Amino acid sequence: MKVIIVSIIGLLLSFGFTSQAFAHTTVEVEPYKIEAGWGLEPPIVGIRNDFVFKITEPDKTSGQYKGITNAFKNLEVTAMFGGASKKIDINSDPKIGYYFSPVIPTKTGSYIMDFKGEINGVPINVQIPVEDVESTAILDFPPTSDSSNQDVTSLKNAISSLQRDVSAMNDGSKNDGGAAYDFAIFGLSIASAAIILAIVALIKRK
């Protein structure tokens, strides 16, 4: 009995892993099946990827579906995101029926593939959503939020240290002054500029 239960659990888990690894969407436009998705899943913003497509038709001999060559001869695909759209170039994969289009997703969220045209005289006018693009946080290590907090703390400490140094030098200038004082102020100015640049870089990184 235990063996049967373990086997069932393993089977369910394998189904779960399969669905996560192959999150493509398929629609049927008789007699064809059109599948769309990402080459790398999950898709991550800013990382090179591919829109991938699979187009098949029934094989009268085997009873299964087979890939179609030149499926995009009279068929166009437009990638859509919000109000933005772009007609994409389609490349043929060595495997019959498979096609791809290189892309670097620049925003997180939902993308839709809009198919318009015909395949061997059959009109095609369908839209297929693909898996949402994720932020880099899903892959970041260590988390960028932690490192940002550490950077901010370090910058605050450095600024406080500079303020103390300037105050001390102002007190000392009443007695000493001269070239040594001017040189020290110059050095502190460079340090201050470096901190400002670090703050600007930190803001841009966020």
Features:
10 strands, Immunoglobulin-like, 33% strand, 3 helices, disordered N terminus, alpha+beta, rod-shaped, single chain, 206 residues, 4-stranded antiparallel β-sheet, 6-stranded antiparallel β-sheet
Short description:
This protein has 206 residues and is an alpha+beta fold. The chain is 37% helix and 33% strand.
Give the arrangement of secondary structure elements:
Elements: H1 2-21, E1 25-29, E2 32-38, E3 49-58, E4 65-67, E5 75-81, E6 84-87, E7 91-92, E8 98-103, E9 109-119, E10 122-133, H2 144-173, H3 179-205
Antiparallel strand pairs: 1-2, 2-3, 3-4, 3-8, 5-6, 5-9, 7-8, 9-10
Overall tally of domains: 2
Rg, alpha carbons? 30 Å
Q: Provide mean pLDDT, rounded.
A: 79
| Helix percent band | 25-40%
* CATH fold label of the largest domain: Immunoglobulin-like
**Low-confidence spans:** 1-21
Order of helices and strands: HEEEEEEEEEEHH
* CATH class (first level) name of the largest domain: Mainly Beta
Specify the CATH architecture of the largest domain: Sandwich
Question: How far apart lie the N and C ends?
Answer: 55 Å
Number of helices: 3
Major sheet size, sense and barrel closure: 6 strands, antiparallel
Secondary structure: number of strands: 10
What portion of residues belong to β-strands? 25-35%
The named CATH superfamily of the largest domain: Domain of unknown function DUF4426
